[in-house]
Amino acid sequence: MDRIVRDIFSFGDRPFSERIGFVIFIVIVLAFPWIVESGYARAVMIKFLLFALFGLGWNLIGGYGGQVDLGQAKNVGFGAYATALMMSHWNTPFWLTIIPGMIVATAESFAVAYPMFRLRGHYFAIATLCVALAWKELFTFWDWTGGARGIELPIKPTPNFTYMEFGAIGYHYFIFGLFMMEFLFMNWFRKAKMGYELQAVRDNEDAAASLGINVTLTKVKAYCIAAALGALGGSFITVYYLYVDPDLVMPLDLSILIAMTVMVGGAGSIWGPIIGAAILIPLDMYLGAWLGGIGRYGIDFMIYALIIMIIAAREPRGIWGIIERARRRR
Amino acid sequence: MLLEVKNLVKEFGGVLANADISLEMEQGEIVGLIGPNGAGKTTLFNCIAGYHEPTGGKVFFEGEDITSWPAHRVAKIGIARTFQSMKIMPNLTVEENAMIGAFSRTGDRWVARSEARETLELVGLAKEASAYPTELPIATQKRIELARALATKPKLLMLDEVAAGLNPLETKEIIQILQLIKKEKDLTLFLTEHVMEFIMTISERVIVMAAGRKIAEGISEEVAREDKVIEAYLGERYAKGK
Known about the structure:
Order of helices and strands of chain A: HHHHHHEHHHHEHHHHH
Number of helices of chain B: 10
Number of domains of chain A: 1
Radius of gyration of chain A: 20 Å
Low-confidence stretches of chain B: none
Strand order of the largest sheet of chain A: 1-2
Structural class of chain A: mainly alpha
Strand content of chain A: under 5%
Shape of chain A: globular
CATH topology of the domain at 1-78 and 196-226 in chain B: Rossmann fold
CATH architecture of chain A: Orthogonal Bundle
Largest sheet of chain B: 6 strands, mixed
Radius of gyration of chain B: 18 Å
CATH class of the domain at 1-78 and 196-226 in chain B: Alpha Beta
CATH architecture of the domain at 1-78 and 196-226 in chain B: 3-Layer(aba) Sandwich
Low-confidence stretches of chain A: none
Distance between the termini of chain A: 38 Å
Order of helices and strands of chain B: EEEHEEHEHHHEHEHEEHHH
Mean pLDDT of chain A: 90
Largest sheet of chain A: 2 strands, antiparallel
Distance between the termini of chain B: 37 Å
Largest interface: A-B, 23 and 33 residues
Oligomer: heterodimer
Strand content of chain B: 25-35%
CATH class of chain A: Mainly Alpha
Number of helices of chain A: 15
Number of strands of chain B: 10
Helix content of chain A: over 70%
């Protein structure tokens, strides 16, 4: 038991420089709302933390598992809708809606996983994309979920911990707390038996099977856990915007952006999702706003695409791959 | 009886890769499987280890019918294997590669690590533990596969052309390692090779295959003199001219 606790909190296997870097990162995030007063910058920070959290979940299946999943938005949607429906229909406290959202996402993923993992590589990616799009269509035309109009949550008169309604600073620490929970979970996961087995499956399925690993079951488990982690972020979106609709929580762009942040940052590394989100999210929000402001619409997408192409061509393991390679050469 | 193969048949779209192969193996033996390229050695290995489903026939391990079991179940029951075309996990370190093997019996990372260290020591890779496999020469990578398979603590270890692509010195080292392992772990070894020299040095008994059939079986030196074996390797003219 205390070994598990140690594995959750220990970064002892990472070099000193990385541990220092992570402490600096935590200090910056904690101090951020007290230093920066701009509402836009705070919103960017919250979006960064949200996508870092999404990235952590995607990294499990896409990075450690090597299965390119382009349907993570459906899980975000399940989490978001579970929270929205429970809170609006039954006035359920926010905290009791997280687990049901995760369960729905896990159960749906388990149901579709077995047929899906009969496919490999690109075909698997296409299948995940199709399933996610199908769910989005369903939610768009389903009256119970509010259809295309979505669900609006009532604004409470006072800051409220039960329903998680408060100012920007509150949401900042709230999402950071959720992020840290997922981060520590991943820190345990990468060192656990399942983490190793998943990486073995990613690297060579035949070899993994020869060592007693049930390849399909390992992938299915990873796919389900990643789904639960995605749903957690979805629940946050609902109380952050006090609103959900299929275009907000289930679009194709969201699936792609989640996968992209991890691939740019470094798939299969603990830091990759943070690095990727730290680059893509501010780039997206500042560059887009600035270029749009001077009437140069669309250029931000070109720059965005260029960065992704350069990284994909130069180092498939992303920015963290470049850092690691430089370090090993030294 | 540790391993028993009964009338095993494997067809690939009408091509007979294994035709009616039967063999038996006792605990503690070293058996070599030889034959020219394309004789069906690897196919037979794959059928036993659960990588191919046999078209016909049965495979028994310690009396249990394991025919058509998936590979991971075969591994759990105590049959480990290495691959002819190497299947190394490139993004895991040498030690982590071996740890994956140890994880087949334990869920504890620390136990897995110490067992991985132990097997790396045994194959002479203790110093390379934290390196990545792709940074190392082929001969070393072959040993990683060996260590990984050993870390599952198998009863039967099947080695598919473990000496292929190695120079004579490296081959000698591998033979020494295998003899050491055999002595320390009380293993049963089943090896394929098309290099006669290697298999003759290490095996107590050899089985010869050609064109998907078993053509001879017996003590190494005697088998090597049989006409059918020479014919399979060198062609009819050599066998007659002997």
